[in-house]
Amino acid sequence: MADQHTSFGHLYDQIVPQSGKMAALAIARDAVRQRIRDHFQDVLKLPVPKFQSQGAYAMGTIIHPLSGVYDIDDGIYLQHLDAESNRDWPSPERVHVWIHTAAAGQSNEIPVNKKTCVRVPEPGGYRLDLPIYARLNQRYLLAECGAKGWHRSDPKALVDWFSGAVKTYGEQLRRVVRFLKAWAEFQSLQYGKMPGGLILTVLTVQNFFPDERDDVAVAFTLQEIESATYPLLYLHNPRDGSEELTARMSMMQRMRFQEAVASAASDAAKAIRCASPEQAADLWRRQFGDRFPAH
Asked: Exposed (0-12), middle (13-18) or buried (19+): which is 101, by Cβ within 10 Å?
């Protein structure tokens, strides 16, 4: 069998952000946090919110995107709405305006008010997404504009769930999550929009197949994902079964993802079984692009 474990190490070096980039991300995030603190204290005269990194940044699975534009999530937790009744709470639309106003002026780009967050574009290839939370009866609610309004959502629980999985399986799990996120990003050029990072992370954890070699772990994890998502992808939040993570995916997107997974699982199975390192590398490059080294 062609052993491509070392080649996956080279791929990993290509997709992991450099330390300087991560430091710049943290500086940009902290500057926005301070603008929000100042706005609440000096303008709104309200208790200063708390902040919590979430998503790939908090899980340690962020990758260097092909586009060069990093998306990071930073949750804002409103302290003055921590209560046992939400009868007098402001609407999600209103609290979005607070954050939008506070973040304006951070860069030449104007913040974007989205349904579930305020997005702050930053120079240097960053987009900072700011979801807003409050706590009701010890449960976190997300401020979503539109019909859903304030509704239950706890990204901290997902980060804790993932951290527990890493403790169980080791750092290889984190690497395989990054590999599959890089795979999905490259395959989106052919198949169109792929599932987001959270969906890919949950799929990887729930179907993870550890092995001493990363190429084998990726191959068998892909096979498990193919089986788990046949004939179509439906996935729920592992910490909140009432939330379908795939609810916003169209039927066409689900079908294309299944096609992409089937192709990847097939090529991966061939790659770990073929005798030729050159042929194995070609199969992996078909799935990961030229960030995977040629043999």
From this structure: middle
CA proximity to 132, closest of 83, 98, 88: 98
CATH C-level class of 19-157: alpha beta
Q: Which residue has the tokens 């992991």?
A: 16
Each residue's pLDDT, cut to its tens digit, for the chain (295 residues) gives 789 999 999 999 999 999 999 999 999 999 999 999 999 999 999 999 999 999 999 999 999 999 999 999 999 999 999 788 998 999 999 999 999 999 997 777 899 999 999 999 987 788 999 999 999 999 999 999 999 999 999 999 999 999 999 999 999 999 999 999 999 999 999 999 999 999 999 999 999 999 999 999 999 999 999 999 998 899 999 999 999 999 999 999 999 999 999 999 999 999 999 999 999 999 999 999 999 999 8
Q: How far apart are CA 96 and CA 115, in angstroms?
A: 9
Query: Vertex 160, ends 156 and 165: CA angle to 5°?
Result: 150
Is residue 105 classed exposed, middle or buried when 0-12, 13-18 and 19+ CB atoms within 10 A define those classes? Answer: exposed
Type of residue found at 53: S
Domain ranges of the chain: 19-157, 166-291
- What the block records as the tokens of 85 is 């009744």
Whole-structure pTM over 0.90, yes or no?
Answer: yes
Please work out, in degrees rounded to the nearest 5, the angle formed at the alpha carbon of residue 290 by the alpha carbons of 286 and 293. 95
